[in-house]
Each structure stands twice: as C-alpha cells, then as structure tokens.
Amino acid sequence: MIASLKGKPLSIKPDSLIIDVNGVGYLVYIPLSVFHIIKEQGVDEDIFLHIYTTVRDDSISLYGFLHEDDKRVFSKLINITGIGPKIAINILSTISTSDFHKAIFNEDIKTLCQVPGLGKKTAQRLVLELKEKLPDSIKDLSEPIFEDSLSALINLGYKKNIAQEALEKAYNRGLRDIESLLKESLKYLSRD
Question: What pLDDT was estimated at residue 140?
C-alpha cells in the first residue's frame, strides 16, 4: 500500500492531480482544499501528501491529503454504508475537518446536507455512526476560547482552515487559555 507521496505536481485539477515522484507520475484524487493550497503555493514546490489507497478488482485508486486528520476522517467515512470515496471527498471539499466534527457532534444535519450528493438520510446515518467515535478533544472545539482564538488567528491574516488546524493541534495538547493556544498555534503555523 502507498501511504504517502512527495514530489512535484505535474498537472492539477480541482478533483485530482498528477504528482511526479522520481520520474513516476501518480494520479491522486484530492479534496478541493488541497487543490486551493497547491494552486496558492505554486506547482514548482514539492508537496507531501498522506495517501489512502483503495484496491478494487479492476483498479487501484489513490486519495491524497495534506493532513493526517483528513485522511483519518476519509477512512472512517468510506466505511459507512452508502458513503463511497466520491462522497467522502465531497465532504472534505465542502466542510473543514473540524467543522465536520462539530456538525457530527451537534447533529447539524443542515450543514452536512450542504455537501453535494449527501442527502438527509445519509447525513443522519453519518451522525448516528460517527457521533460516539469522535475524540473527546474534538467535542470541546465549540468552546468560546477556541472560537475566540480562531478569530484572532484569522485577524492576523491566516486562512481559516489553516488556522483551525494549527489551533486544533494546540488544543489537543491540553492548552485551554487564549494566550497559550495562540502561542502554540503560531509555532505550528511558522513551521509550515
């Protein structure tokens, strides 16, 4: 199984890219968020993708994610009846991972139904099957401290999804005051 790839994007579309790894071009399906980040940074730089590989009788497909958490969510999603790779990618293209977790925890069917191809019954099944599987730290992300810290990072000029991921890492380390969350989040953001 292919677990990760690092190389230069040869061509990129909103739903897929071809990544050159030492002269071999791999077709990788991606969420829209990955497309936007790669377009922003340019195709001249190497990218690192966490890969989820599916093997079927007639094909091998690769799905690429910039963050391990996105890959984990994708893996959980495709194990739910009625959710295939295409809908799972649509979910991750429409809703950030943390917003997805919040929607599941808060049983926010309306937010989930914004995903193309995801109807009300399937959204209800997602909530039913995933709500108890969420880590406790994710359940706390609706706290005002988290929201205030996220707002501060956005006001500093960071994009919401990137700021949110850094903040989640800081939050998962057990930090619960705004000053500590911001300092730790900025450390993560400066590494990227």
Answer: 53
Q: For position 135, what pLDDT does the model report?
A: 57
Quick one: tokens of 164? 């949110």
DSSP tag of 53: E
Range of the domain at 88: 69-136
Are residues 183 and 132 part of one domain?
no
- In the chain, the amino acid numbered 131 is K
Q: What would the mean pLDDT of 23-48 be, rounded to a whole number? A: 89
- C-beta atoms surrounding 49 within 10 Å: 25
Q: Is the pLDDT of residue 17 over 60?
A: yes
CA–CA distance, 33 with 10 (Å, rounded to integer)? 18
CB distance 185 to 167 below 8 Å = yes
pLDDT band at 137 (very low <50, low <70, confident <90, very high): very low
Q: What is the pTM of this model?
A: 0.69
Q: What is the CATH number of the domain that holds 58?
A: 2.40.50.140
Backbone angles phi, psi at 6, to 5 degrees: -135, 125
CB 49 within 8 A of CB 37: no
Same domain, 113 and 93: yes
| pLDDT cut 90: percent of the chain above it | 36
Verify that 12 and 33 share a domain, yes or no: yes
**The last residue of a domain, from among 136, 157, 175:** 136
Structure tokens at 101: 């977790």
